[in-house]
Amino acid sequence: MYKDLLPIGSVVKLLETERFVMIVGRIVVPEGVDTIYDYVGCVYPEGISSSDDMVFFNRDSIEMLVFVGLQDVQELTYRSEVLDELGELAVVDGEIVPVVDDEEVDTSI
Q1: Which of 5, 63, 66, 102 is a plausible cystine mate for 11, CB 3.0–4.6 Å?
Q2: If DSSP codes are grouped into helix, strand and coil, which group holds residue 39?
Q3: Burial status of residue 56 (CB atoms within 10 A of its CB: 0-12, 13-18, 19 or more)
Q4: What is the pLDDT of residues 72-82, one digit of tens each?
Q5: DSSP type of residue 31
Q6: Cα radius of gyration (the chain)
Q7: Distance (Å, rounded) from C-alpha 24 to C-alpha 53?
Q8: Beta bridge partners of 95
Q9: pLDDT tens across 63-73, in order?
Q10: What is the pTM assigned to this prediction?
Q11: Which residues pair with 41 in a beta bridge?
């Protein structure tokens, strides 16, 4: 489900926007929202000056990949051992937790 996410530092153009966005996080939930987003980013080249500058989006909102972020051994290991292995996730009490089956959510993590 989360296989092939772009690395941190990647720059994309989102649909219906003029500005580029640099990815600063993956698999995130904005505070007070029960939705998991593939990415959080900031407007490029300005960066983050306040939490209001954060842009939450999913991979289907990406119109164009402008730059691919660093893909070193740490990134490739994280991707193969963590991101590629993630199954379905849910938000419980503001936390991202794995879904054990269709009815149950594992809150032990």
Answers
A1: 66
A2: strand
A3: middle
A4: 999 999 999 99
A5: T
A6: 15
A7: 12
A8: 92
A9: 999 999 999 99
A10: 0.84
A11: 23, 55
